[in-house]
Design goal:
Helix 1 packs antiparallel against helix 2, helix 1 packs antiparallel against helix 4 and helix 3 packs antiparallel against helix 4. The termini are far apart. It is elongated, with a radius of gyration of 21 Å. The chain is mostly helical. It has one domain. 81% of the residues lie in helices and 0% in strands.
């Protein structure tokens, strides 16, 4: 892949991520101001952002059309997203506990707790791109191909042994 093609993919991924993050921030902030627990806010924000993010990544950033590979695309995407969800739930809960002295619904408290959610998303941004690029949206499983190749070498070596 050329440098310009990779740069274009990273740009599309970043734009899709910003759109998904914006959706998540709005949902998280509104629910948090309404007095809902930070774990519930994180889960709702995750779902609100993850669905458009997957569609934008698959169709726009990686330009994949047609049949979905459930295990590599959907299952792997969900596993990665759940890891990020657990991290964001933990950090927003911890941040909320740290700012307990600030009245709930106060602007600075909302900004700090929502900022913790954003920090987790930013932290995982590059790691998710690499996993998506080399596995989830790679078009074929490189891991499976490597294991198949290793098995074929071992089988051929065994077949060529003298008794």
């Amino acid at each position: 892949m050329s440098a310009s093609a990779l740069a274009a993919k990273i740009t599309r991924y970043a734009i899709g991520s910003v759109i998904a993050l914006g959706t998540s921030i709005v949902v998280f902030g509104l629910m948090y101001v309404a007095g809902i627990d930070t774990t519930v806010c994180s889960i709702a924000a995750f779902v609100a952002g993850a669905l458009p993010n997957w569609v934008l990544n698959r169709r726009w950033a990686w330009k994949i059309r047609g049949k979905v590979n459930f295990w590599r695309e959907v299952f792997a995407y969900v596993v990665i997203s759940v890891l990020v969800l657990v991290a964001s739930s933990a950090l927003t809960g911890w941040t909320n506990a740290q700012v307990d002295s600030i009245p709930s619904g106060h602007g600075i408290r909302v900004l700090l707790v929502t900022g913790a959610y954003v920090a987790v998303q930013a932290l995982f941004f590059a790691a998710k791109f690499l996993v998506y690029e080399h596995w989830v949206f790679a078009g074929r499983s490189r891991l499976r191909a490597a294991l198949r190749s290793r098995h074929q070498v071992w089988t051929a070596a065994r077949a060529n042994r003298s008794p």
